[in-house]
Each structure stands twice: as C-alpha cells, then as structure tokens.
Amino acid sequence: MKYMLLLYSAENRWSDEERTACMRECLGVCDDLIARGKFIATSPLQSVTTAATVRVRDGRPLITDGPFAETTEQLGGYFILDLHDLDEAIAVASRLPSVTKEKGAAEIRPMFTPDGVPPARPLPTGPSDPAVIPYLLLCYDDEAGRKTTAPAVIREAMAEALSLVQELKDAGQYLSASPLHPPATATCVRVRDGKRVITDGPFTETNEVLGGYYLILADSREAALRVAARHPGAKFGSVEVRPLYDFSGLRKVPEIS
Fold it and tell me: Where is the signal peptide (predicted)?
C-alpha cells in the first residue's frame, strides 16, 4: 500500500540551523527506507509565504496569496512510501524529527492510483534549467458537497482531471499525481511530553479536505497557478500551490517510481 505522510509544523518553531538539521535527519530515515525498498519520494516545501490558493467560481479564477487553511501549523513537506500497512506507516512517522522533537505532527493518508494516471517521474536532479521549478498542487474537496453531487458530474470531473494529467505529460510538465483515500482513513501521529499520541482523522479540521495532489514542473508561479485553475477541483473546492524546496545541496535523494 502506498502512503503519503504529510508533515505539519509552525515555521516559527524552527531556526535555520534546526531546519537544516531536521532535513539531514530525514535523509537518514530515507537511507533506511531506500535500503528496505520502501521509499518512493520526499521533499520539503518552500515557506508558506510562497503559497497561493486558486478557486474557480462562476467560470472565473480567484487567486489569493497564502495557504488554503489559515492555521498556525502548516504543511512543510511530505513523504510517499510503499509500506505493508498502517502500523508500519505509524512507525515511520514516529521517527521523523518534526514528530520526535514535538514540533509538529505527521498525517498519514493511504493513496490509490486510478486507471489512466501515467507512471510517476522522478524529480529532476543534477544540472537543470533553473527557471523550471517543481510545484505541489494540493487539491482540497468539499467532502459534504461531494456526497450530494450527481455521479455524472463526478465522472465528468474525473475525466477532466485525467485529461489534464495527459496534457501535462505530453508537455513534459508531469511528475506525479494521485488521489488520496477519504479523510476518514487519515491517522495523525504526534509526540507530546515524550509520549506518542495517535488520533484518527485529518490534521486540519476544515470544511474542505485534502483529496489528492499533482506534482508538476512550471517555469513560473503564474504558470503553476494557471494549471491549478484548470483542475476541476478548483470549481468545487480549492487548489493550493506550493513550490518545492531544493535540498539537493544537502545530498541528492533519488526518487523511485
């Protein structure tokens, strides 16, 4: 089973030195996961100050600076792993420094790949065009509204999403994409006062919940926002756009598709 581990923390809880040490420690966890054939991908995200959120209402894109959720603790990075079960996912989450240092939490979400989604491509490594940046598009859905939406409308939106993926692939912009299982399947891992705390449900309690992601290449923030505005989820919910943080200087981490 593939799992996405979403790492949440307040940015002001980390000094620059602590953040660098955290990333190095995460690389050590990656080494172990790679050796055991469990690793697929990971990346920190750039500061939440770089985020933008896209909604489409009445056919018009509405773009606001900042993340989707106005919360103290924001998404700072992710892991995508191939694990045996939820217990193994909890064990990995419990080793991550944002959890062990009691500065954040890890939300665990099982993933699935619908028919028609192209295989993932690794993040670019080595010399590359500095103008081309990887962006993570986080697709938030109105879960309650989805339950009352006609099945034909949902099928049309899924077909539209797959068409966008194929277009991005043909243009060389596609890296990966996946929906997540419903938020009821989410599990959060924290450490408080030295004790591990595991709770059911997503980390952020909002009307719209994370339903999936796209990882794309774009030559500008504006280009990434245009892609987000074309995602059908922007018409029913929101799409948050976050550039990935380049931590290749610490050490290159291969992505395994």
Answer: none
